[in-house]
Amino acid sequence: MPEHLIIFRDGVSEGQFDTVRDVEIPLIRKAIEAKTLKNMKPITLTLIIVQKRHNTRFVTTEPYQKDARSRQMTRNVPSGTVVDNTIVEPNFDIFYVNSHFSILGTSRPTKYIVSVNELKLSNAELQRLCFLVCFNCVRHKMPMSLPTPVMYADLCAYKSKIHIMHRISTEEKYNEEEIDYDFDDHQSPENIEVENRQIHRYQQWVKIPDNSKDCLFFV
User: Fold this and answer.
1) pLDDT (tens digit per residue) in 78-99
2) pTM for the complete prediction?
3) Same structural domain, 110 and 131
4) Is the pLDDT of residue 141 over 70?
5) Are strands 59-67 and 110-117 parallel, antiparallel or unpaired?
6) Separation of alpha carbons 181 and 176, rounded Å
7) Which of 16, 144, 149, 187 could serve as a FRET partner for 130 with CA atoms 20 to 30 Å apart?
């Protein structure tokens, strides 16, 4: 068992920070405790929210040559640029990291919000961690704009969506009934029970062949 878990949480808007703190993190701790052996040192947790959909952009004050082989000039900030003051919100531990090399257009930095930091890493260590985990994606030899765990989670979710949408179309075709797969954040207990059954149903639809388990089949 690991001594520490570092989780990158994607797909969270600013209005959902409280949900992550009050709902998701306690459930994560409960799942960790269920797997922790007796007399074992408690597993600590670090959770970082990752946001790409924002309107913040950074440019250099003067254009510079993109690389030694090209005469093209750019104002995009270099890979590894970090902004952690002045423009960030004072109520959260927030920083921006521009980890990738933008070929076309204006690069969009990734926004990181530290929700839990039980490993007690310094801001510099957290920023370096978020930068380095953008380098180990098997699809690309250059740094990505997002941490590799987030990229892999997006790919895995997309593959699962293909399975689910195919099964939904098949069910509707043969059963002549429309399946509602849209979930509402504000529901009654009865609707939540229906939603949980539907989620369990989807989980049964997504099956991984034995020869594809324990490997990055979704990449």
Assistant:
1) 899 999 988 888 778 999 999 9
2) 0.82
3) yes
4) yes
5) unpaired
6) 16
7) 16
